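User: I'm writing a short report section on ligand binding and want a predicted complex to refer to. Could you take this sequence and norvaline and write out the structure as tokens? A short remark afterwards would be nice.
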Amino acid sequence: METRVTLKGRSLLTLTDLSDMEFSYILDLAEQLKRKKKSGVRGHLLDGKNIALIFEKSSTRTRCAFVVAASDEGATAEYLGVNDIHFGKKETVADTARVLGRFFDGIAFRGFKQETVSQLAARSGIPVWNALTDDWHPTQVFADLMTVKERFGRLSGLTFVYVGDGRNNMVNSLMFGCSRSGMRFVNCTPKELAPSSELVEQARLQARFGGTVEVIHDPRRAVDGAHVLYTDVWVSMGEETKFAERVKLLKAYQVNQALLEATGRVKSGDLLFLHCLPAYHDDKTEVTATSGALEVSDEVFEGPFSRVFDQAENRMHTIKAIMVATLTSEGGVS
Ligand code: CP
Ligand code: NVA
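Assistant: Sure. The structure tokens for the complex follow:
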């Protein structure tokens, strides 16, 4: 029997908010919207909608993805840096939420506490999308999975290895997103940065289609057989004081040519390198606060297995899908 999937009016705060059908519906819709944009068709799915973007932390991709995706389908987006508005200073989060709920159709929030985005959703009365908090980065995972699917034609049965800080917003989200898509997910991280056993257990309980979750500390053993190697910055936004400590803990976890070789898939070419970006990869860049590449070598970042810019582009198509799915009656059939 066919089931109609609709997410109209819903928020996206973590990946656990979505059922299996809703999850795959967003991915399918993103594929459709990407084809539509590539074929030059201008959309009207979000005509007349207004989107607020409240950002407490910096952003290149996520901010631009919301703005361009909104414009592509007829909506407008207003950027509200926290220093531009009264949010959380002269006015409580709950009051700001209730005001913005009267003006806008949806709110994207990027910031520190997960509690803030939950409060916005609870008090605004409109869909709220988590554009990254200290704990989760759910919209990124859709772009990551879309890129994997474009490369391998499937998700189920693949081995996805994340190498780096084992308890940041990115790995938390990937742990759920990959295992519920039927992948073998490996969180490769030092003991000191291992995820809590409760979170790992929760991800295992939500795994589907044969998906699994493992935590492995030895990088060479962890990447053996990987189809996808993924890394993220070693120090997330808001943790800048931990820089020296993290470099010390993670320097053996850099994704470089030797680690790529350890997958055993370089010869067959059955390998993909992904990074949510921004990345410290270039020995010559002046933005790296230390000399040299950190989480990924320049050779890997610029090499034949890297699709990090396709992945960045897919942020826009997937964020568009999330907005269309939650703001309109556009629905899928499963
Ligand atoms: N990947 C990602 O969220 O990038 P930005 O910080 O540039 O938005
Ligand atoms: N873990 C990173 C992700 C950036 C997209 C951070 O929070 O800074």
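A remark for your report: The chain has two domains: 15-136+314-327, 140-312. Residues 132, 137, 168-170, 232-233, 236-237, 276 surround norvaline (ligand 2) (CB under 6 Å).
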